[in-house]
Amino acid sequence: DITSRKKIEFEVARQLERLNVLHTVEQAIAGATELSAILELFVQQTTEQIHVDACAILLYNPQTHTLDFAAKRGFITHALEFTHLNIGSGLAGRAAQDRQVVYIPNLDDVTGNPVLLRAIADEHFTAYLGVPLVAKDNLLGVMEIFHRTELPASPDWVKFLEILANEVAIAIDNARLLTDAQQSYKETSALYQINRKLIATIDPQELMDEVVTLLKLNFGYHYVQIFVADPKTGNIVMRAGSGEIGARLKAEGYHLSPGDGIVGFTAETGGPFFTNSVEDLMVFIRPPYLADTRSELAVPIRSGDKFLGLLDIHQIAPMVLTERDVQLVTAVADQLAEALQKAALYADLQEALRHEKATR
């Protein structure tokens, strides 16, 4: 049966072609370690190897629970570059939520998604496929494929796309693991350097100045400051701040009343607190010269039950604060608390020696 044999030969040839595509894509991204490079290579190889007009990658941000644009290829306009899509919203959001492929043979039939339709209005796309990127049962993002003509999606071709998506999901996961390992090493080294600096001095003001400078330098925070409680007025007074802003605020005697702002709130509650949307908080008070602050983290400096002060971190977009930042800043606050206690003991000893000398 010639017809049957031809069908078998065609199927074998198609499977070989797909295996070659997978191998080519795998080889292309295997040599890259930077996440951005992996994604750029992937969208390039995907459009070239499976002959589709455009491909985009949206990565899942677990902090904001959004799908954010990461890479694209084959687009005429800047479509999708400003995407921040909530899970469950839109075509990609639906693919992410259900963890299933979303196939739209004709985008003209799509209703209720004006944001996407406006974004791709000048691209003249016809067909769409959204494929979730999942590794180790964790959602990493969505691969989006667009085509300007009809794009039949047979079950075996969809399965092939899922295997292709799995390749990039594994690469993304590996790249993030490597980045996390490098970041962990960097953070450990930074904490060690901070600890060395704190051991090297016993002057309280110098200790605080060192901490705000090193936190800003090593962890990329926009601004860092330290407050202490004034026993006479009860106000929370800024005693050290990073950079020019810190010098100006200190010179102006910047302070907050008890309970005011995130700093005052944290001092009263006694536990660390952070937000990535300061404007949404009624207690937020914007300090002078920090008009761009979007995120703030406040961590008490304590020695046992004794409140010594408070570390305050400010961050600007697009950076966000995470629980990891809470852990890092808390570790520094604990180191600083110990150093300040030692400085206080040394000061008490010096005062006792001076008193003894004066009474002889």
Overview of the structural elements:
The protein is built from nine helices and twelve strands. It is an alpha+beta fold and 360 residues long. The strands form two sheets. A six-stranded antiparallel beta sheet has the order 3-2-1-6-5-4. It has a six-stranded antiparallel beta sheet with strand order 9-8-7-12-11-10, with helices on both faces. The longest helix is centred in the middle third of the chain and has 45 residues.
For this entry, give a set of tags:
360 residues; alpha+beta; six-stranded antiparallel β-sheet; 9 helices
Brief account:
Helix content is 49%, strand content 22%.
Provide the fold topology.
Layout: H1 2-30, H2 35-49, E1 54-61, E2 66-73, E3 84-86, H3 90-98, E4 102-104, H4 114-119, E5 127-135, E6 138-147, H5 155-199, H6 204-219, E7 223-229, E8 236-241, H7 243-251, E9 255-256, H8 261-269, E10 273-275, E11 295-303, E12 306-315, H9 323-359
Antiparallel strand pairs: 1-2, 1-6, 2-3, 4-5, 5-6, 7-8, 7-12, 8-9, 10-11, 11-12
Question: What spatial form do the alpha-carbon principal axes imply?
Answer: elongated
Order of helices and strands: HHEEEHEHEEHHEEHEHEEEH
Instruction: Report the radius of gyration as a whole number of Å.
Output: 28 Å
Chain-averaged pLDDT: 85
Question: What percent strand?
Answer: 15-25%
Number of helical segments with 4 or more residues:
9
Order of strands, main sheet, comes to: 3-2-1-6-5-4
Unreliable residue stretches: none
Going by helix content, strand content and strand pairing, the class is alpha+beta
- Per DSSP E runs of 2 or more residues, the count of β-strands stands at 12
End-to-end C-alpha gap: 119 Å
User: Strand count, sense and closure of the main sheet?
Assistant: 6 strands, antiparallel
Helix content: 40-55%
